């Protein structure tokens, strides 16, 4: 393979890669613009849906591209609020605390 053929091969691989990266960049920028403008979809509005009978969702934000999904859950029996963050790597749930370090109750 001579230098001309190697250059043509590299160029033929570079164009699809550049198009894919441009598409990814546009998707990221659209997600950021949507968050800055405050566009609210049905998933971002507060919801009062039942979750496993005992928990209900007070707030839900699905995030954007590469953004974690955040939800505020409320225990219907105790009133304690929990923050749930979900990513592609896993989910974390932690109670929301007040200034004194006690679980925050919205009641």
Description:
The protein is an alpha+beta fold. It has 1 helix and 5 strands; from the N terminus they run αβββββ. It has one helix spanning 3-37, and strands at residues 50-51, 55-61, 69-75, 81-86, 91-95. A 5-stranded antiparallel sheet has the order 1-2-3-4-5, with no helix packed on it. It is rod-shaped, with a radius of gyration of 22 Å.
Topology, element by element:
Blueprint lengths: L2 H35 L12 E2 L3 E7 L7 E7 L5 E6 L4 E5 L12
Antiparallel strand pairs: 1-2, 2-3, 3-4, 4-5
Cα(first) to Cα(last) distance is 75 Å
Helix/strand-derived category reads: alpha+beta
Mean pLDDT: 77
Provide the spatial order of strands within the biggest beta sheet: 1-2-3-4-5
Low-pLDDT runs of 5+ residues are none
**How does the major sheet shape up?**
5 strands, antiparallel
Provide a count of the helices: 1
């Amino acid at each position: 393979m001579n230098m001309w053929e190697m250059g043509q091969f590299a160029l033929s691989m570079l164009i699809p890669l550049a198009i894919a990266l441009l598409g990814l960049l546009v998707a990221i920028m659209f997600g950021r613009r949507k968050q800055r403008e405050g566009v609210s979809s049905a998933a971002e509005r507060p919801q009062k849906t039942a979750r496993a009978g005992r928990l209900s969702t007070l707030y839900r934000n699905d995030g954007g591209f590469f953004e974690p999904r955040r939800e505020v859950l409320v225990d219907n029996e105790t009133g304690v609020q929990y923050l749930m963050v979900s990513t592609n790597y896993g989910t974390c749930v932690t109670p929301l605390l007040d200034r004194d370090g006690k679980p925050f109750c919205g009641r």
